[in-house]
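Structure first, sequence second, as always.
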């Protein structure tokens, strides 16, 4: 009989790819829970994404802020920080850049200097596709597609929209964002333990593990502050755990010491815009364009279940408008023209109903 303690199983990542009407969505799961969510809509700006590389025109040089605004052909203005070791930038000239951080709501995309520009402005490397992003994070095998992929997408979206997440063994974390930073509040809950210090340590370790996945899923970066439970923390053990759990977010992760107030502060590089920028509007309401895609999914599901039936969908006017503009023709191509959309002013934005006649 082997009395040795069983080794902790290695983490397993799996990829899922869903190609719906007006959307291509990829999900990476970590031990069965969603860890990354990649979304592409046909209307996306293909030049506004991490990894895009090209020769850009220098629009203006802001010496006071040690930065310049540059633009790839057909692209938006991008912020390029000026470093002392860079060649002098001249308005109207060209420079080779790579997009480091895509734009988000009120903030321009940020680029990094690659080399002095040669030739006319042009795109050298386009943004990676959802398929390429999945391959980057899950090297082995092909992504799962079909109904299982859609189920993974819907679970990932629900998690991305959630604020409170249960911890294994009891307790939870609340992940909330302001303009300046993201807080992770750790709560012990009804975690059972005779030793309160041990219970706090286990909860804090579990919180780091769950939060590392959730922050990746939500696409959150910048300053992250953990409000830990208990006192007299084992700072070295917690910061080592944080360093290991956030290693997939390198390069650029920085972890501070635990403060006398029991907080752990860290910085995680921002790469893509937060996923909530796509799922919600600026005032926190569901984005009608996203809800319209949920409606298209529901129509397809119902259409497959009842291959010859007439389908009726009801939704809020803003959702009906987004569906008509972006998705109507694509759904008709897949199902035939056997559905009608009813615009209902008494429906909230996130309410949709689909029925077969």
């Amino acid at each position: 009989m082997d009395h040795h303690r069983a080794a902790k199983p290695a983490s397993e990542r799996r990829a899922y790819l869903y190609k719906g009407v007006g959307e291509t969505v990829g999900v990476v799961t970590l031990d069965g829970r969603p860890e990354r969510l990649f979304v592409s809509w046909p209307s996306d700006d293909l030049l506004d994404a991490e990894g895009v590389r090209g020769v850009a025109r220098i629009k203006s040089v802001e010496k006071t802020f040690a930065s310049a605004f540059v633009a790839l052909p057909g692209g938006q203005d991008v912020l390029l920080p000026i470093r002392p070791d860079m060649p002098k930038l001249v308005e109207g000239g060209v420079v080779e850049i790579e997009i480091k951080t895509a734009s988000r709501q009120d903030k321009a995309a940020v680029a990094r200097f690659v080399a002095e520009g040669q030739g006319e402005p042009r795109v050298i490397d386009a943004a990676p596709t959802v398929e390429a992003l999945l391959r980057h994070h899950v090297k082995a095998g092909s992504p799962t597609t079909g109904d299982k992929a859609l189920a993974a997408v819907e679970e990932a979206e629900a998690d991305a929209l959630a604020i409170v997440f249960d911890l294994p063994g009891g307790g939870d974390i609340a992940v909330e964002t302001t303009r300046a930073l993201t807080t992770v509040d750790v709560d012990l809950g009804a975690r059972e333990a005779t030793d309160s210090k041990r219970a706090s340590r286990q909860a804090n370790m579990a919180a780091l593990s769950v939060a590392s996945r959730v922050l990746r899923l939500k696409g959150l970066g910048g300053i992250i502050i953990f409000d830990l439970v208990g006192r007299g923390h084992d700072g070295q053990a917690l910061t080592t755990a944080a360093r290991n759990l956030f290693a997939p977010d390198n390069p650029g992760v920085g972890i501070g010491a635990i403060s006398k107030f029991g907080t752990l502060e860290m910085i995680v590089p921002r790469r893509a815009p937060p996923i909530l920028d796509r799922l919600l509007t600026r005032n926190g309401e569901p984005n009608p364009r996203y809800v319209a895609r949920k409606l298209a999914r529901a129509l397809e599901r119902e259409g497959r279940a009842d291959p010859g039936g007439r389908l009726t969908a009801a939704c809020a006017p803003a959702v009906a408008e987004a569906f008509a503009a972006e998705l109507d023709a694509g759904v008709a191509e897949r199902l035939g023209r056997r559905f009608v959309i009813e615009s209902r002013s008494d429906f909230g934005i996130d309410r949709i109903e689909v029925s077969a006649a």
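Margin note: The radius of gyration is 23 Å.
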